[in-house]
User: Fold these one by one.
Assistant:
Number 1:
Amino acid sequence: MAGGEAAAGIRAIADAIDRLLRDAHRGRLLRDGLQVVLAGRPNVGKSSLFNCLAGAGRAIVTPLPGTTRDLITEVVDIDGVPVTVVDTAGVRQVAADIVEAEGMARAAGARAIAGAVVVVLDGSDDLNDDDRAILRDTVSSPRVIVANKSDLPCAWPDAAAGGAVVRLSARTGAGLDALRAAILRAAGTAAPARDVPAITNLRHADLLARAREALARAGTAAAAQLPEELVLEDLGDARARLEEITGRRTPDDVLERIFSSFCIGK
């Protein structure tokens, strides 16, 4: 086969792998789920929003600041992705007591490991120092900024929050669909997730990436009309990685890892 034809064939296979790799992130979300943390100062409506997303009155809602002290979780479905929504204690500069301080610390810990943070602001009240602090603390995190209480007169423009804002009402439910779509975008998967991706395993995604690298080397060698042995070596490497995915080839280290995960004979 001429070098150009061989390179074209290799590119076609590489393109197919690229499509699988682009879908692998969504596949991992479908398998492992996504953790989304609701964050904001007290009384902005985090617990009301949590109940809306959960479809049930899971969190206690009162007009008293600091009602939520511990983490409350509920798993919901957003376009096929299992999302664990976490309601957290309101964050303010000075805690009322040691229990609230512990709740705020747990809220900070939850935000640190979240797949996405929903920063909840009161759209009907002026932004204060607590709002600005949580916006600063989450600026480097995948996040969605929410202006709750859109059923009331708006108190500030979107630009005041320093980013795109989803305006909604936890009381009426208006804007919830926009929030759900924004959460998936923040997590890196905005496409409908009803069709199951071909790759949902992290190890398989790594093997695909390594196969893609080997194909890239083979394509470069073929296009440059280098000796056939060099092209075949890289193609063999790519094939070996793909056969590990299909199960036709199982290296000893993979077998050792598999068997180390099971307690044989018990």
Number 2:
Amino acid sequence: MSALVLGPVEVRRLLPMRQCMDLVAQALRALAVDDGLNPLRWGVGLPDGRGILGMMPGYLASPPALGLKVVAVFPGNHGTELDAHQGVVVLFDDGNGVPLAILDASEVTAIRTAAASGVATELLACTDASELAIIGSGVQARTHLEAMLLARPIRRVQVYSPDRGRRRAFVEREGRGRDVEITAVGSVEQAVESADVICTVTSSREPVLMGEWIKDGAHINAVGASVPTARELDTAAVVRSRLFVDRRESTLNESGDFLFPKQEGAIDDDHILGEIGEILLGRAEGRTRPDEITLFKSLGLAVEDLAAARYVHDRALDEGLGTEVDLGGRRVLD
């Protein structure tokens, strides 16, 4: 028995953004009809607080995908050559439990997170949205730019991050070969003042996007904060928005962007109007007016990772890519 090991270059080659958007949409539909399992993530924090080892198990019935993502999150990696998220996605055979594949989790996460925002943007943003603001300049800024250009007819992009050099480098790198105007600006407020779509993809634990800065009709993908003690949006931004999520249970337990306003008494659980899977199934209504603000709070789900990993595994087998390693327990029979 052998398992396939796939690194970041192979994952990137085998998982185009448009395809991943379709896979994520399929996974979220399946979860909404109980055709999958997605327990809350759990983690082990190092005693000195420098990092967390997080585990995200899950299962999808069709196509079958059983496994988990294990990620070490080390915020101290920001600003270095290393991604803050390091880990693997492990696929198992859902019939006998034998390991099928081990994939680089950083690249899977980078693509599928932006793909989920792409799906939400297609569902919730105004159809003529043409101006994009990206708050952040890291890996997720790169993949979110790609997803937003697929989701809407974006013509102008404004990027802000606190490090002037990094935001300028982002603009120079991502502007090559694209027929879209990309500029670096000096503040979040300047970036979002005319934005039709806003993506917050930061590592901040405090709000970076204020409700008073958001124009009527905008759509927001809030991505960076994924624990109860961190948020990227202030309370006013959440209160002003029609809120949609990838999963209610995750939001109620893990999202600081939701939990802080709730603790302040500004919103309650009914502020969550639906899951993306429910909109896809026609069970929830997305945007109802051109002037309302819509918000997708993304936390990231194991089923998204597994749908992407299964697709990459199957394509790798077809194309003869990856490295096979001998894994899987065997009994010695008398």
Number 3:
Amino acid sequence: MTRREQGRYEISNVPATIRMRQRPGAMIPIATRYERTTFEPDCVDADDARRAELLAPGHPLMDTVLDVTIEGHRQALEAGTLLFDPTDPGTEPRLIVALTAEIVDGTGAVVSKRFEFVTLTPTGGTAVIGPAPYLDLQPLPEHARPGAETALAGGWLADGVEQLATSWAITHAQPNTWNKYAPSWCR
């Protein structure tokens, strides 16, 4: 990627290995190159410049790169990492999970897709927390790691992070998605 205008980039070559890995049934093929791309919706249309492709969940290039990354680094992603917020005086640990929800029609086409980060706490607190909550966090110092890992392993995460996140999504996110997209006569 080469930086073009503020918040916009050029991808001069998408490797064939990525293009060939595109999900089956994708409506838009992955291009060989992209003259303008952006990760920020506000930068799609810029003054005196060409329209940029928004690289976000649902874009074929983004989805394929995510698939390849997850496949190649599954163990590290499942293990996670310990971070801390130096500006937060609270002592309650929080789990940040990334959730994707899709609504598929009878033909198998995705008609709606949503991606969000959610925090979960041992006391049952939850919050949808915006687009990149980890950017202001820092790695947990080495001297604090052993105690934190021990406390987390035996407590509220004992059943597993995936189980906890799935349970939250089923009881909270899924009903909200259904209510948002279901026809009024179904509610």
Number 4:
Amino acid sequence: MDLEALGCSPIGDLVKIEGTDAKGNYFTHSAYVPHPLPADVELSSKTWNAVSQAMEALGRLKQACSQLPNPGLLIVPALALEAQTTSALEGTHAALYEILEARLPQLAQLTGEVREILGYEQMANEAFELVRKRPITIAMLTDLQAVLAASSRTQPRDPGRVRQHQVIIAPENYKSMHDARFVPPPPGDQLAVGLDDWQRWVNADHDLPIPIVAALAHYQFETLHPFGDGNGRVGRLIIILQLLRSGALTDPALTISPWFLRHRDEYADLLLQTSGTGAWDPWVEFFCTALKEQCESHVAVAEQLMEWIRLVRLELQTRRWGGVIVQLAEDLVVWPVVTMTFTAQKYNVSTPTAKSAIDRLVEIGVLTEMTGRNYRRVFGATSVMALVESL
């Protein structure tokens, strides 16, 4: 940690800490405690232009969602991708196909990575319901972190509550506390006060546009690092919750983590740089660019999915196929991986009828077998999955 730079920070202070690290070694070091967020920030005209573009892009995405016959067209695939990429930022990796396949109730054998990613989906779905009724609070977030912790491959310390131990941000192979890239506030009063200030600030009425509010709130949350595990995933989820809470979006049809994953080094560097310099421009501009480009991608993918559905419907009409074949084909945009058993149960038809529907969609290239086995065969709409992965 660059103690010289952080020691001169205009938006935070270094405090002395001591204790025993995760390896059992005694240490003395310093931790960074951010000041409360400001009511207003001075930004350059270039950054304000980025803010304006982010606002316009959010408006276009909101309008696109309102025009979709089924908002799930974007919401369900977007959540799967967000779960995949936000977890990848924390070192948990699985293919999108594996996550979608794992949603099938008949497939109980899950890897630890997939189970952890599905835990994020469960947490996010609960959060989307809660934020429509309640403000964003630390109490809400600790409950959500408990959901995430329950699916973790290794049981984190202090699950479902604000951490009672010191954490650091460091490489996996770090040798001592002094190898840390960043040391967040120590547990106790300073962390508690920081979180109380954050909660009040997030729920206050601001004259600032929502992209700036979300950018500052994300910086502060990650700097405080309130949990023993899951801070990045919870923090990125909060961005979507703020957009929903503010009315900038009416549906959680946005992923932000894929963009951060593609720019992960700059993402981490700018968060740290902001602490050292107190200059908000680089971080806010970066954040607003992420919002803008992701909103634009989602609008484009929504249009492409609608065109895919149109072409599939046309092909089915030409062949005069109806019934469960049509239902299954149209549902593939929100549930692009299926089995015969799942299809039979979902549409309340016999297994032979489900097999016939799947076989016909395979025949025209709408579905592709993904497993290559004689039992528990899994089929996927690869065109839909490719569009989702392009977000």
